[in-house]
Design a protein that fits this description.
about 675 residues, alpha+beta, seven-stranded parallel beta sheet, about 30% strand, apoplast
């Protein structure tokens, strides 16, 4: 998809492509590097270069990005003595090693502008400002070290730090936000740069879809330009898809559409794309004056002003702004009358004629539909995870509850916690009394509870509050009872003070209440741990392995709506060239694979929020223009066409809660 996306960006009037460098993607285990396929950084930069754009390489290597563990590889957490993003020897050594390797690779391909290449900027660290308040002096020394280390790599192009007010010279401190006109760099000789102009916002399972009106985004950009801004990067211009287990959070959706001008599927979203394209054309008409003078500001009314730039020889550029949130304004500028819509800027490249107004949208709105593709699922099969045999293979045992990531090292989202409890035959609930209840306290992110092979329900945290508790009456029998808790990580945290130390899994308490003797604490007894699912161990997702397993076939395959079930089916690639998606509305929660490639996590969590009307005017925040209330946050899952062959594509679903595979369909994304 890269070349098409980059060409669309160029056609939209962009000059530079920003990209993160994902450490966990490029160094999945210490000293083992991956620059293949989607992680082929050199090919990506070459593609940008061939299309004729520049690159801003945001090495980080902390990137946040709503990405698993903020881009850090999980193995880094287990380097002895390490403390992330601080003045810490082991961390600095690892960070420097990776940064050097990326810079060296770029130099070998002569990619820096100083070598005649496309990279004009690089970023070290990422949004460290909020952490600095918590860390104090140790934070400052880390920032100074990171700056010195980066500058010492001699790339010949400037380095930036975003959201880092005390970035030491020669590092340029830059702004991220919905608006950055208020921002000034920490030295007058540094350019005013906006490294992330947020075009929308991310989504989390169970949340609404935030939309940012393009009138407001364009107004934010002109406000920045008229105050002397020199560089704006849209975050995102194309957000794409968090394939595999790359989504962070926890609970960040697989879709990272971000309400961007180019949508998740690579299609231009109107009117956002064309309105910004017209804005970029208008700004470029003003370029010579913008780069050769500071603005002269004149008040035109209580809420209105003019910013005027001139490049000598009578050239004159004006930005006329109205900051009122409701009322249009009539103003007089250079003895001419102008009407400014509410919350907008008009651009006059000759100080006379308006070529663009941020609130006047000409482009038509895209009508997007998910339509049947004509491809049907065939040869459906089912494989049930057998809970009764858990604890038989590849397990560890320990007294007490273990933290999940310490056990899994993030090799799987899933970890079984299994124990048994003896119930005396004399317990009164065995003779018609009230069932005892089982409570489970978890540090995150989700749990499915089974007792004696019977499913008793689930509980989930949220991105803001990962901790949660499960409590339900359970039917125990006299003698031995087997409690099996499937704990699930739904994307590791990507932001927050020392998020690498945050716990995941069942680390609180597990207890039975309502026994004759009161409560029974199970937390300190012997537990068996099993990493991952049987289907993962059998590699059911692989086209070669899936065929060697005895799947339940025919109509029986579609009948079971039980939890912890694997499904497989085949489909042929839809005709045409429209983007393809999987409609999983009939499923519950789990993961999906096509031809062995992971589409990502799915979850039909219904969106709760406030989806009222949306007025473009007034300061935008992510809660302002919500959509999708009462619908699943993400119903459709992007299937890249390049993953498909003409016939016989293998779809594998792992369903945690119980879904109806007979209603899953392959759809096409059509735009009118």
């Amino acid at each position: 998809m890269w070349e098409d996306l980059i060409k669309k960006a160029k056609d939209g009037g962009l000059d530079v492509i920003d990209t993160y460098v994902f450490w966990n993607g490029h160094e999945p285990s210490p000293g083992t590097y991956n620059f293949e396929g989607r992680y082929d950084l050199v090919r990506f930069i070459k593609t940008v270069q061939e299309v004729g754009l520049y690159v801003h390489l945001r090495i980080g290597p902390y990137v946040c990005a709503e990405w698993n563990f903020g881009g850090f590889p999980v193995w880094l957490k287990y380097v002895p003595g390490i403390s992330f993003r601080s003045d810490n020897g082991p961390f600095k050594a690892a960070m420097q090693g990776f940064t050097q390797r990326i810079v060296q690779m770029m130099k070998e391909h002569r990619f820096f502008e100083s070598q005649g290449g496309p990279i004009i900027l690089s970023q070290i660290e990422n949004e460290f400002g909020p952490e600095l308040k918590a860390l104090g002096p140790a934070g400052h020394s880390y920032v100074n070290w990171a700056a010195k280390m980066a500058v010492g790599l001699n790339t010949g192009v400037p380095w930036v730090m975003c959201k880092e007010d005390d970035a030491p010279d020669p590092i340029i401190n830059a702004c991220n936000g919905f608006y950055c006109d208020y921002f000034t760099p920490n030295k007058p000789y540094k350019p005013k740069m906006w490294t992330e102009a947020w075009s929308g916002w991310f989504t989390e399972f169970g949340g609404t879809i935030p939309k940012r009106p393009v009138e407001d985004l364009a107004f934010g950009v002109t406000r920045f330009i008229q105050k002397g801004g020199s560089y704006i990067n849209y975050y995102m211009y194309h957000g794409g898809t968090n394939f595999g287990r790359t989504a962070g959070g926890p609970f960040i959706t697989t879709s990272y559409d971000y309400d961007a001008p180019i949508d998740e599927y690579g299609l231009v979203q109107e009117p956002k794309y064309s309105h910004l394209k017209q804005l970029h054309q208008a700004i470029k008409q003003c370029e010579s004056a913008l780069v050769s003078s500071d603005p002269k500001v004149t008040k035109l009314g209580n809420y209105e002003d003019a910013h005027v730039f001139s490049a000598g020889k009578g050239s004159c550029v004006a930005f006329l702004s109205n900051y009122h949130m409701n009322a249009p304004a009539k103003v007089v500028f250079n003895n001419r009358h102008y009407t400014l819509p509410a919350w907008s800027t008009s651009i006059l490249p000759d100080c006379r004629n308006v070529v663009f107004n941020t609130a006047t949208v000409v482009a038509k709105t895209s009508q997007v539909q998910m339509v049947p593709s004509g491809s049907i699922l065939y040869s459906v099969g089912r494989y049930d995870e057998d809970i009764s045999t858990y604890g038989d293979r590849g397990t560890i045992t320990a007294f007490g509850l273990l933290e999940q990531i310490n056990v899994t090292r993030d090799a799987s989202d899933y970890l079984w916690y299994i124990t048994s409890v003896d119930i005396k035959a004399s317990e009164s609930f065995l003779r018609g009394g009230k069932w005892p209840s089982l409570t489970v306290d978890s540090a995150g992110h989700a749990v499915h509870v089974f007792v004696n092979g019977h499913f008793y329900g689930s509980a989930f945290g949220t991105r803001e509050n990962r901790r949660f508790s499960f409590s339900a009456p359970v039917n125990l029998r006299g003698g031995s009872n087997r409690i099996a808790l499937l704990s699930i990580a739904v994307g590791l945290p990507n932001v927050g003070p020392h998020f690498e130390t945050w716990a995941t899994g069942i680390v609180g308490s597990v207890a039975l209440h309502g026994l004759d003797g009161g409560s029974k604490d199970l937390s300190r007894q012997r537990w068996t741990y099993q990493v991952g699912l049987r289907g993962e161990a059998m590699n059911l997702i692989s086209p070669s392995e899936a065929s060697s397993v005895d799947w339940i076939k025919g109509s029986l395959a579609k009948q079971n709506k039980q939890p912890l079930t694997w499904y497989k089916a085949f489909f042929d690639a839809p005709r045409g060239n429209e983007p393809v998606a999987l409609d999983l509305r009939s499923m519950g929660k789990g993961q999906a694979w096509i031809n062995g490639q992971s589409l990502g996590r799915y979850w039909m969590a219904f969106a709760k929020g406030n989806c009222g009307s949306c007025n473009y005017a007034g300061t935008y925040r992510e809660a302002k223009c919500q959509s999708g209330c009462g619908e699943p946050t993400q119903r459709w899952y992007h299937v890249p066409r390049s993953w498909l062959k003409p016939r016989g594509n293998l779809l594998v679903l792992f369903e945690e809660l119980g879904g109806d595979v007979s209603k899953v369909s392959v759809v096409k994304r059509s735009v009118h």
